[in-house]
Design brief:
This protein has two domains: 39 residues; 73 residues, HU Protein, Chain A (Irregular), CATH 4.10.520. The protein is of the alpha+beta class and 113 residues long. The strands form two sheets. Strands 1-2-5 form a three-stranded antiparallel sheet. The protein contains four helices and five strands.
């Protein structure tokens, strides 16, 4: 799935034009980007959490010539899926889970009646 596919799903699901859906997606991505640059955490209930991970400086070995080199410390974006999303992906191997995904329904489990 690429950006165009996501825009189409937003447009169809929210009854928006493709242009409105594209602006909504761009605003979402910009908001997450800005928050991560500031070091903030972004949590979307039922979907997951975007945050920044700090990696320490370390020494690595070049496999080609065996020389060691220093890799500097850095910050990297990270995504941790919510339990609902993890279980939906895990269960998608079943025919029922795959059919639900194809219809684009929520990944939240249904409450037992």
């Amino acid at each position: 799935m690429n950006k165009r596919d996501i825009i189409d799903r937003i447009a169809n699901g929210a009854k928006l034009t493709r242009a409105q859906a594209a602006r909504a997606l761009d605003a979402f991505v910009a908001g997450v980007h800005t928050s991560l640059v500031r070091g903030d955490r972004v949590t979307i209930s039922g979907f997951g959490t975007f945050d920044v991970s700090h990696r320490k400086a370390r020494r690595v070995r070049n496999p080609r010539n065996g020389s060691s080199m220093e890799v500097r410390a850095r910050r990297v974006p990270r995504f941790a899926p919510a339990p609902y999303l993890k279980s939906a992906v895990e269960d998608s191997g079943s025919a029922e889970g795959a059919a639900e995904d194809a219809r684009g329904e929520s990944c939240r489990p249904r409450k037992a009646s």
